[in-house]
Amino acid sequence: MSTIKDILLPHLGEGIETAVVSEISVSLGDVIKPEDTILVLESDKATMEIPAEVSGVVKDVSTEPGAEVKSGDLLIKVELSSDEETQVKADPKTKEGTVLDEKPAKIRHQEIILTPIKEDIKKEGVYASPGVRRLSRELGINLQFINGSGHKGRITKEDLHGYIKFQMSTSGGRIEPIAGEIDFSIWGTVEVQKLTKIKRITGQRLRQAWQSIPHVTQFDEADITSLEVLRKKLKEEHKKNGIKITMLPFLMKATVSALKAFPLFNSSLDHTGENIVIKKYFHIGVAVDTPAGLLVPVIRDVDQKSIVDISKELMDVSDRARNKKLKPDEMKGGTFTISNLGGIGGTFFTPIINSPEVAILGVSRSDYKQIKNGNKFESRLILPLSLSYDHRVIDGVAGAAFMSELSTVLGNLSSFNN
Fold it and tell me: What is the rounded CA–CA span in Å between residue 21 and residue 42?
């Protein structure tokens, strides 16, 4: 008489109470061996393959895809082979009719082979677990273009990750959109404008920076009431010389003062990611909006220049940027960048770090606010500031301290004596 064994779910591992059945790899009547996978589970921590552990014929499948299971739940029933039956009967540790492995379920670790996907071949049906489908939707990846390595061609997480790695390795780190072309004109009138080369290059750099740098953004405000009085005075004094004195040169000088107090913000990670290169020079990049796209000319040695000197240089590089006359070297070597939207509006925003720098300052439009001073309120000109920094190099305490220092410098007119 043959022996029927219940295959129960083994212990899933420390901290994993339940899992979801994402794939059943056997069917009624299948002949299985101990190393065969009977089903695949997904938890919030891992993807796990459950092995058969015995030889025989599958007589019943007691679960289904999408079911939530826990340790000890019945998975399948197996009619043992003659050799397996003899071994089980001889093992006193094995209960009659039950196989319950004391070892944790095997967590899948599979080397991904990066092979091209034939994207012109689409499968009529796509077999994948709910978790894989959900992840593909979040990443905007069409599963029809991925070859499945699982049972019966099922697409696994490893297949999805392999596809992503292949796309990145062949596209300079960018995952190209693979969704089919959409004809937006079927819903109304459209106009197609080609991205300029500058916008395409800038977009690639910004995407790479956003994906590779852990950004944190710190927001603060600075009282620039007195500083605005000084700016207007200097503006009037140099008006006859055609020199435009804006708030930006003051921001640049104040930023350098804060960078000297907090040198980590004037640094870069080296190519190994294990060393910080702290720069002893202060070259400030200034984002300039041009008809062709965003450019970031660099003003060198800001610490050694006066407000008037910086103003004249800003007028020059801004004009040449808009007329496509900047030289490549004039956009290299920056240690810190300022993105100034004060002339447009808004309050706070999240600027993207200009790699390989580790921080960037965003400046919005200043406005008058009623600020309490003792028992009365005063109208003060307040400047919104947004600082994004690389969390691998700079922590939150340093970010808050830098902003506090910057606000203090902007409120202290003696900082701009030169």
Answer: 7
Of 89 and 118, the structure prediction assigns the larger pLDDT to 89
391 in catalytic set: yes
Residue-number span of the structural domain to which 76 is assigned:
4-107
The pLDDT score that the predictor gives to residue 148 is: 75
Residue that has been written with the tokens 């005063």 in this structure: 378
Residues 230 and 416: beta-carbon distance below 8 Å: yes
Tens digit of each residue's pLDDT (9 = 90 or more) over 243-258 = 999 999 999 999 999 9
The residue whose two tokens read 């400046």 is: 363
Is 262:331 a contact under the CB 8 Å cutoff? no
The Cα–Cα gap between 337 and 387 comes to: 10
- Which of these is catalytic: 11, 161, 238, 391? 391
Domain-embedded: residue 238 = yes
Q: What is the distance, to the nearest Å, from the Cα of residue 92 to the centroid of all Cα atoms in its chain?
A: 53
What is the pTM assigned to this prediction? 0.58
Spatial separation of the C-alpha atoms in residues 334 and 384, rounded to whole Å = 23
- Provide mean pLDDT across the span 83-91: 57
Residue at which a domain ends, from 86, 107, 128: 107
- The pLDDT score that the predictor gives to residue 197 is 73
Question: Cα–Cα–Cα angle for 248, 330, 319, nearest 5°?
Answer: 55
Q: State how beta strands 4-8 and 98-99 pair.
A: parallel
